[in-house]
Automatic annotation (TrEMBL):
This is UPF0033 protein YrkI. SUPFAM superfamilies: SirA-like. Belongs to the sulfur carrier protein TusA family. PANTHER family: SULFUR CARRIER PROTEIN YEDF-RELATED. It holds the Pfam family TusA. PROSITE patterns: UPF0033 (PS01148). Residues 7-31 form the UPF0033 domain.
Length: 76
């Protein structure tokens, strides 16, 4: 999956991953993908709910071997 931009939100607590995601996604064109890396376990539910409520699509999320949460959101 090709991301237009990668946001490093590791080490940030709620609500900062959402705040930074919103700022970064505003800079993308519709249809482009933002990849987010986070360590806050609450980011999974927060980013899913935020994506849905703001008209974007959470395409995929996974946890890597270093317990980094990775999300791919397509701008609506």
């Amino acid at each position: 999956m090709e991301s237009k931009k990668v946001l490093d939100a590791k080490g940030l607590a709620c609500p900062m991953p959402i705040v930074k995601t919103k700022k970064e996604i505003n800079e993308l064109k519709s249809g482009e993908i933002l990849e987010i890396h986070a360590t806050d376990k609450g980011a999974k539910n927060d980013l899913a709910a935020w994506s849905k409520s703001s008209g974007h699509e959470l395409i995929k999320h996974e946890v890597d071997d270093d317990n980094i949460l990775k999300f791919w959101i397509r701008k609506g």
